[in-house]
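Quick one, tokens below:
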């Protein structure tokens, strides 16, 4: 076994790395009975950390108030 194969990473470290770079989650779920679509759910999500250098997309600049 090499060093890379035995390398363990804590869940907190993994979440920190994912949030620092951002994660995009996409998916589709369809409930179908007898070839008839009853419910369709589309999921598109962006998960990322926000700080001073990367401001929140939900905040308006002060000049737009």
């Amino acid at each position: 076994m090499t060093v890379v194969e035995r390398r363990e990473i804590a869940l907190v470290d993994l979440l920190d790395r994912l949030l620092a770079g951002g994660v995009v989650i996409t998916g589709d779920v369809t409930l179908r009975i007898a070839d008839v679509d009853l419910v369709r759910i589309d999921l598109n999500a962006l998960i990322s950390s926000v700080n001073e250098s990367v401001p929140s997309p939900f905040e308006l600049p002060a000049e737009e108030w």
